[in-house]
C-alpha cells in the first residue's frame, strides 16, 4: 500500500474510533437528558394526580376494579401529561387502578423508591418486565395522613431508539470527518513524500538496511559529526580503531575519551588528504570532508584507515634499505681495501699486506666484540652494529658507552627496546648529520631496577626549549616532509615506554640527551611507581611543620 493509502486508512480508523466515542457519549447524554426532563414531567403529573380531591377522599377505601371516579381521574392525568403509565395504590401498596389492568389488585413495584417514608421520588422501575422512568408521590388526606401512592411513568427508550434519534447527526459528523480525513491524508502524504524525496516506506526501509549493511561491512572506519560535534554515524571499524563505546552515537566528543590530536583532526578542516594520527599504538590515516546540504554545512564525515601493518612493512623495508646501504658502504670500503692490498702486492710490500689485512680484520672484530660482549640480546646487538655502519657511511661516530650492560631479555621487551633504540638513534643521526666535522652519537644501555634504561646523547645543536614537549607530539617534526610521514618516531617511542611502565624524557647537555625507561612488567610496574610516588608525597606532607 502506498504512503497516501496508509495515511488514509489510519485516518479512517481514527474517524471511526472518534465516531464510536461520540455515539457512546451521545447515548449517555440522551439517557441523562431523558431522566432529567421526563422525570420532572412525570413528577409534576404525579403531584397533580395525588392532589386531586377525588383521589384524596376515595383512595383510602377504594377496591381494585370497582368504581369509575379514580380510573377516570388517573386516565385524564396520563392523557394530559403524555405519560405511558399511571397507577393509584392504597397505603398497603395494593394497586387500585392502573393503565395496565393486569396490575390491579397486585402489589405496586416500588424499586428503590422512598415514597413509603412520605417523600416524593423519581427513578427507574421495572413495570411489567419493561424498564420505565416513574415518579412516586404520597397521597395525603385532609388530616395529613398518607392514604396511598400516585405513580406516573414513561417507558425508557431503548439503545436502538436513542441511536435512531442520533443517526442524522452522526451521519453528518461521519461525512464531514471522512472528507477532512481524506484531504488531510493526501496533504500529509504529499508533504512526507516531499521530505523523503518521493520514496515510499518500503523504499526507505530498504535504503536504511542497505546503508547499515554497507556501513558496517566496510573495513575502513567512518565517523560522521554534526555541527555541534556530536557523533551521528559510526561503524564498527571506526569504533574499534578509536576505542569508542557502543553507545557513542549522539554523544559529544568532549564527553568521550578522545585524544586532543584526534579530536583536532575530526573537527577541523585539513589542508590536504591522508593525515596520520597515532591512536594508541596504531597509526591511523584520516580524511575529513565537510557535508553540505543546500549550500550550508550540516556536519562532517571522516574516513579512517589503519596503517599499522603498512607502517610495519615500511619499517621492515627501511630496515632492509638500511641493511642494503650498510652492505653498499661495506662493499665500497672492502673495494678500497682490496685495491690497497692489490697495490701493495704489485709493489712487493708483502709484509705491509699482512699488516694491513690483520689491522682491518681486527677493527671489524673489535666492533662486533665490543657490542656483543656488553649487549647479550641478539636483536638489539644486531641493530647497534647495523646503525654503526650506517653512521660511518654518514660520517658520524656511533659509540656504545663503556658502562653499557644488558643481559638476556624476553622477546616482547626486546622488540619494544629495538623500537625505542632504533627511533632514538635515527633521530640522533638526523640531528648531527652534516652538523659538524666531529659529529658523534653515544648510546648507553643498562639494566636498572628490574627494567632497562637507554640514554642516547648526540653532539648536535640540541632541542629548542620552546618545543621540548612538542617533539613527542604525533605529527610534529622539525624536518620538512612532503608526504607528512615524519613526526611519529619519538611519539611511538614514548607510547612504548609508557606502555612498559616507564617514560621518555629529553634535556640538553652539549646536545640533545634522550632518556628512556622500560620495565618488563609494564602496567604492573606503572602502578608500583604511582604507589611509591603517593607514599613519598604523603611522607613529605608528614614531615612539614
Describe this structure in words.
There is one protein chain. With 545 residues, this protein is of the alpha+beta class. The chain folds into four domains: 3-161, PAS domain (Beta-Lactamase), CATH 3.30.450; 218-306, Beta-Lactamase (2-Layer Sandwich), CATH 3.30.450; 309-373; 390-545, Heat Shock Protein 90 (2-Layer Sandwich), CATH 3.30.565.10. Helices cover 49% and strands 20% of the residues. The protein has helices spanning 3-50, 53-58, 69-81, 159-195, 201-217, 236-242, 260-267, 308-346, 350-372, 378-394, 411-432, 489-499, 523-543, and strands at residues 85-90, 95-98, 121-127, 130-140, 146-155, 221-225, 231-234, 275-279, 282-293, 296-306, 397-400, 440-448, 451-458, 503-508, 512-519. It has a five-stranded antiparallel beta sheet with strand order 2-1-5-4-3. Helix 8 (308-346) runs antiparallel to helix 9 (350-372). It is rod-shaped. 26% of the residues are buried.
- CATH T-level fold name of the largest domain: Beta-Lactamase
For the CA atoms, what is the radius of gyration?
Answer: 53 Å
Strand order of the largest sheet: 2-1-5-4-3
Question: Care to count the β-strands?
Answer: 15
Strand percentage, roughly? 15-25%
**Helix-strand string:** HHHEEEEEHHEEHHEEEHHHEHEEHEEH
Second rung of CATH, namely the architecture of the largest domain: 2-Layer Sandwich
Relative helix content: 40-55%
Instruction: Assign an overall shape.
Output: rod-shaped
Q: Biggest sheet, open or closed, and with what strands and sense?
A: 5 strands, antiparallel
Total helical segments = 13
